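Thanks for the sequence, V.! I ran Amidase domain-containing protein right away. Repeating your input here for the record:
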Amino acid sequence: MVTYLRTQGAVPFVITNVPQALLSFVCSNSVYGTTGNPHNKDRTPGGSSGGEAALVAAGGAPFGIGSDLAGSLRIPAAMRGIVSLKPTEGRLVVTNSHGGVPGRGRLGLSYGFFTRNVEDQVFLLDNILSSENYVKVVRKTAPVPFRHSAFKAEKKLKIGYFVNDGFLKPVPACARAVNDTVEKLKGAGHELVVFKVPEPMHMAEMFLQESDA
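Predicted structure:
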């Protein structure tokens, strides 16, 4: 993906910080130290792609690249007030990279972008996924272009949500953020359905086992 972006005029200029072993929702390690939140240095930028999100949020780059297995794009974006999306695994391909723990197999990661607005996110995804040249450069990529019809569709959605997953009780600010979002989506005409997470302890065990596979 980086090779293709270079052909489009992109200039990679920095490698940003990540948490140790890529297994944390904060951004700190013993080699490069701790990355703070550009909006408040005493708070975390999230993880694991936290350094990249902090750079984009601070205006240091027009966009950034990160990976996501269990929220490593989405969590930093939420903590920074920027835009990201976890594509389907294999939609965007990165080669010649290394896992977070030596000897551990590569998990099913998705690669994606951090941008400061939705328009830039769509531009990047369209520029790559709709390009015949990208498919030639990255031959593992499925030749399926970005679907503008799906992006522009005004179909009302049925969206499930929960405030408490039954494993970790959210702090009031997080619960309020979910409820505020629910009301905004209802106001836009979507149907919101609250659901109870089944077997939250089993869910947590599966997540930890998969993360340590």
